[in-house]
Design a protein that fits this description.
single chain; alpha/beta; eight-stranded mixed beta sheet; three-stranded mixed beta sheet; about 25% helix
Length: about 230
């Protein structure tokens, strides 16, 4: 018989369906509030995909939008302001988005160490498909030369970190050509599938990333539903 997991050393892992950006942002705010008020002691990780949307970071980014508002309206594409760091980016189906909500003080971890950890998680994940990609202290994310596979943007409130990472698995990259991604010129956006030359599903990448996330947090991942938190 397998022993029961040590729940005191667990984090809550919530795999969600395709979720509108605003709904995921509200979930994060509710979890941050629950942790601040001590109604939720465990750390939580949301993992999902978003419908197509552009998001702006605290460093703004609308000036890096290269198409008109009329063009975006015709594409039924929104641009929304967020609380995370960084600049403008694109989210869409085929991109694995991971939002860890962590008590930074309880974890005894600094923000730089945390961001480097997110880069390492992505690097270890794509290595499973023979891809050698790394973080960059100048421009955070996952890189192969000037090709970017993954982005990072975090926010901290009441000592609780939220937002997180976005790893391009097999998404449509065209909308990235409508912006200067992350406020950077002369870079290319890429995907795990493109770099590996193999057909790869989001589900495959999610399984591998979950393992490396648990290793980084040094905790057991316990699956749960959002409603189970309250």
């Amino acid at each position: 018989m397998n022993p029961c997991p040590d729940i005191s050393e667990s984090f809550l892992w919530m795999e969600l369906p395709l979720t509108p950006y605003g709904e995921a942002a509200e979930m994060q705010r509710q979890i941050v509030a629950a942790k601040k008020e001590k109604r939720l002691k465990k750390d939580a990780v949301l993992i999902l995909e978003h419908p197509p949307i552009f998001t702006l970071g605290r460093n703004r980014g609308r000036e890096h939008l290269m198409v008109s508002e009329k063009f975006l309206a015709e594409k039924n594409m929104q641009v929304v302001q967020t609380e995370r760091g960084g600049n403008i980016t694109f989210h869409g189906p085929g991109q694995l988005v991971v939002y860890p909500i962590l008590d930074m003080n309880a974890g005894h971890i600094g923000i730089r160490e945390y961001v480097e950890g997110l880069e390492k998680i992505m690097s270890l994940t794509v290595r499973e498909w023979g891809i050698d990609a790394h973080g960059d202290a100048q421009n955070r994310g996952l890189w192969i030369g000037n090709r970017k596979l993954g982005s990072i943007g975090v926010a901290v409130k009441h000592g609780i970190c939220f937002h997180g990472l976005a790893l391009n698995v097999n998404m449509d990259l065209e909308p990235f050509t409508w912006i200067n991604p992350c406020g950077l010129c002369d870079i290319q956006m890429s995907t795990v599938e493109k770099e590996s030359g193999k057909k790869i599903s989001v589900a495959q990448v999610r399984t591998v990333l979950k393992k490396h996330m648990a290793g980084f947090l040094k905790k057991q991942a316990v699956d749960t539903d959002f409603q189970d938190l309250f």
